[in-house]
Amino acid sequence: MKITITRLTTFAILSVSLGAWAHIARAANPVYVGASYGLYKSTDRGATWTNVDIPLNNPLLSGPVTVFSLSMDPHDASKIYLIGHATAYAFFASPDAGRTWSATPFIGLSPGHLAVDFAGKVIYLTATAASSYAVLYKSTDTGATWTRLKIPNTPTTPASRFPLGSEVTTFVPDPTVSGTLYALTFGQEFFKSVDFGGTWTQISNSGVTLTSGGVAPQTIIRGIYVDPRDPLTWYDGTEHTFNPASCPVTNGGLCGLFKSTDGGATFTGLSIPSNFVSSVSFGASSGTVYAAADVTGLGGTVMRTTDGGGTWTPLKNGLFTPHAEDGKIWADPTDAATIYVNANSVINRFSVSTDAGAHFTQSVIPEGPPGCGPSTGCQRQSIYDVLIAPSSQPIISAVVNAASLQPPIVPNSWVTIFGTNLASKTDNWGHAIVNGQLPTSLDGVSVTIGGKAAYVYFISPGQINVLAPDIPAGPVSVTVTTAGVTSATYTATAAQYGPAFFEWPNSQPVATRQDYSYAVKAGTFAGATTVAAKPGDVLILWGTGFGPTNPAPPVIMVRMMSV
What we know:
mainly beta, 46 strands, 41% strand
């Protein structure tokens, strides 16, 4: 057999297995803690903390700032918002990850919970006016002004008692759809709005409506938690402490935590052995959920499920003392190994796990301002809220030959970039080629190699495939820009030659026949009929990085024929 180069051509990369690069190291996400003596930030998973300076340039405010509730723009982790108290309650906003702040005092309002709409343009909070009760407000100008929203009255929340509409116990913006939010009222009723709170639809009657029929008896809903991947999936933390005897009756002995798959209309009891679940958080891996629960015989315990609530495993017994009523959990949304736990809101007992709950270590947050101690009259630091802010900056972890998945890269050849936050979606250039011109930007993602624009073929959060520009051999700088944010420079190595063939699964070289049908053994691809190569077949092998040719083509790719 001999291999003959028959012609040079430009082509799109076929699907290539990239299992060897499935694990990519991830930098620690910044985490903020709101406490009685200010806002604290860690960039090393809670190993160390720094106080975030919040200047008070309003005459109605004077420090220190007690931080009660934290939130951020879902698409821009540098836009941080908080509700704090500094002589008066105020709304604070930072556009640059805490470097600068604006403050808007609340006159006559005591705010509570804070959250941001999916698109980041609308901010919501609950607040209580003097001699009133908690209602919902929204702002479309970053807290400069607030509009009161009215949730309809019901027989359990009549207008005679609730003239401003039903009292809001808690609320959650839809994690995937702008304008949609859900609210739980004092009457234990769920409401939904699809127009930023302008109008509301009641989606359940009072209490936890069971999928099997009826309502879970003697159940107090402590919080609603909407799955960030699927807004129809809810987890409701509940308590039965006022009537613990109702637990064995509720839904066949299941109580404490209920799950809905129809957006809160009906619920099914989950087999968590607790009559009190105070906090729920979703892990980075689909199906992984954490709960702070009072478990019989174990006390306040961190519980975990990896199958969407089917089964539960205790991770840390007795972490919440004396019970789980004040316990809260925050799982890192992009790092499956990191979990933060506050054991008690009035005691500085904050813990972190960096191994998915196998071990928890106390993370020491400073006890107030410098010089604070018992002799100065400072109270102990209380922790109220936690915000994990995944960095929006693209991070490059590797730049390699797209076929061999090894350095070096070669001018005018296919290159694969691995990392995190590389793109907000998965796409390819199929819709972006205009008049035969290949795109240097795809959905706001662009790449430079050696200071020159690369042609962007495929994008995803963890991987980009590009055609390298004409670059010299040696060290070359690589950057990725996504949504206007540019990565730190990564230094890759370029060489004149770096030949490699693309591979199908099981190390089979990517080969096609002259009609471009796959020459690969049967069963390689589920649902696709493929035929292995046989003697006499004329095959095309697909590769990259074969170096310069004579004459030089616009893009160097080698198609090879076996005869």
